[in-house]
Amino acid sequence: MRTVDIQPDRVRLIDQRRLPGELVILDCTDYHQVGEAIRTLAVRGAPAIGVAAAGGLALAAAALRDSPPDAFWAGLEAAAAELRATRPTAVNLFWAIEKVMDFARGQKGEPPAAVAAALHRFAVEMAEEDVAVNRRMAEHGAALVPERAGILTHCNTGALATVDWGTALGVIRLAHEQGKQVHVYVDETRPVLQGARLTAWECLQYGIPATLITDNMAAHMMRLGKIQLVFVGADRIAANGDTANKIGTYGVAVLAREHGIPFYVVAPTSTVDLRIRSGDEIEIEERAHEEVTHIGGVRIAPEGIAVANPAFDVTPARYITGIVTERGIAYPPYTVSLRRLMQGG
Ligand code: MRU
Hints:
Four Helix Bundle (Hemerythrin (Met), subunit A); alpha/beta; four-stranded mixed beta sheet; binds 5-S-methyl-1-O-phosphono-5-thio-D-ribulose; 345 residues; Rossmann fold
């Protein structure tokens, strides 16, 4: 099944908190449940949370379909506000909510039931479009992969982080399907372990040769010559190419530069935020300290120690070899190439 499946009366999600132990489906029947699923990482990954929020808005509209117009529009705006407040960093969330709300506002004057039906169809189309975009990105990115390559990736950017197929891991998956001899080095991705739990699971599902490493092993693997390429995803890309992605990505980029290894970001244009000039303007989500002090519910740090838990970091554009999007690959200077790509669509 798809990671996010929008149905008329529910948003069905693969519950990513339970993987790899169990494959459990989470049925969200109202938008509050969708918001909670986003906040608690039951659904995660920038494109997936955007589409899930779109599905949440469609559920909100469906619940209000028999209300008078004033109550319908006030309720829909309240749902959008609640969904926007779930996570701050991935711009796809805000992009998707704005896209749905712009479409909805264009139907003002129509009966609420008709708007609700149209919003459901719109959210389903967004989900379909996400898969198509991922496939196009994979085509562009796979052309960068040589016949034989060790590829390092960080966090989870596969089917689980999107509606289906994936971004950076989608590129690797296509290269593998094309018969290229790829071997993935999967960063475990502390503290939430998206690499160890989710990317490792996906690689096994697809039969892609992969080795799980802890985050602090990347430099060693590069020095041994095991890694020829790095592909990572993104949560927000500023106009100058600075890229927010899962905490630890910046370190990988610096290591790649030191070892002369190309470092590519793979992300749809919905992740590019031309309204901000640089990564300094990106809000970095700070998550619960228990994610750091505990592993699998077991405390590993003493009570009373101060803890920081930024969920993302910003990789300066100068470390990024290229940004692979569904419209092609942007190369430095990104201020020019990203703007051109965004205008071209
Ligand atoms: O906190 P998460 O798991 O939502 O963070 C996800 C990432 O950082 C991914 O690399 C990014 O969203 C790109 S997913 C295609």
